[in-house]
Amino acid sequence: MSNSGTSSAQPDYKVWASLLGGSCGSATAKTATAPLSRLTILYQVSSMGASKTVHSHDSIYRTMKNILEKEGVASMWRGNLVSVIHKFPYGAINYYVYEKAKILMRPYWSTPTDPGISCRFLAGFMGGCAANVVTYPLDLVRTRLATNDTIRNWGIIPTLREIARTEGLSSLFKGLGVTIWCQGLNIALNFAIYETLQVKAIEMEKWIFRQVLGMSSFNSSDKQRGTWLSSLLCGAMAGSTASMIIFPLDLIRRRQQMCVGVAAPSFLAVAREIVKSESIRGLYRGLIPELIKVIPAVGINFYVYELVRQEVLGVEISPR
């Protein structure tokens, strides 16, 4: 971070590095945690009768057992292809807008070398909103495929065609409003918390490497990238905090996406119906598998992004 005010900081924000690093990080994390991601979605829409395999009051163990017995191991990755196709442009746009927004907000940084948690939050929100607007139809398709336990051979294009044919083109953006707020806040919280913690973690790791272990350099060239352990720990804290805050919004948007053949009810209408029929606890249905998923997922996402940028492409991440 110390060289952020010099000309050497200029190459830190090359477009192609953010696009490629963001794509790889997002796709890797999504594939690694796909079974838990599908489990979360199934729980979120279980009370709607969308799946015959998952029941809202079943334990995670029983649900996994039912899915494996009735649908097979491969079914745990059902919808993952569309997830990966979705995450490549999603991650690319997300990270690019985030890095670019941080530059534009440089006059408002906490210090000349530190964007501060507020700028990170705003930049993350911009990145999350932009990524969701551009890639939303794929997110809708992913939800439909992940909850489909009867028709196994549907792909992305057939699903898009079926939604457009039976529900209209506008249905491809069903639930977009809630998604922008939900995922915008989710990404904002993840970036703000992760990078703020990672700055401190990197400083601590440098001290341990130099003062305790007697090593003269850190990460071979003193770059602003932590170890895999710090990425996982900071990612776990960022992901779990963000998920607990925005989970009710995520559940509501999934319910809107599953309203087949009808106009999606409003945010408040869905929220009222959930509380009325399932109590407040209904807004957090599926939270446990979601937390189990995000604890490794966020760390993997950021670690792969930083790894690709610095070690593969040779583009540093400083300033954080």
Automatic annotation (TrEMBL):
In which domain of life is the source organism classified?
Eukaryota
Q: Could you tell me the keywords of this UniProt record? A: Membrane, Repeat, Transmembrane, Transmembrane helix, Transport
Q: Does the keyword Repeat apply?
A: yes
Mark the Solcar repeats by their residue spans: 13-104, 115-200, 226-311
Q: How does it sit in the membrane?
A: Multi-pass membrane protein
* UniProt-listed GO biological process terms: transmembrane transport
Membrane-spanning parts:
228-249
Q: Which GO terms describe its cellular component?
A: membrane
Q: Could you confirm whether the keyword Membrane appears in this record?
A: yes
The places in or outside the cell where this protein is found are: Membrane
Q: Which InterPro entries match?
A: MCP, MCP_dom_sf, MCP_transmembrane
Report the sequence similarity comment from the record.
Belongs to the mitochondrial carrier (TC 2.A.29) family.
Stored PANTHER family? SOLUTE CARRIER FAMILY 25
Protein name per the record: RNA polymerase II
> From which organism does this entry originate?
Perkinsus olseni (Perkinsus atlanticus)
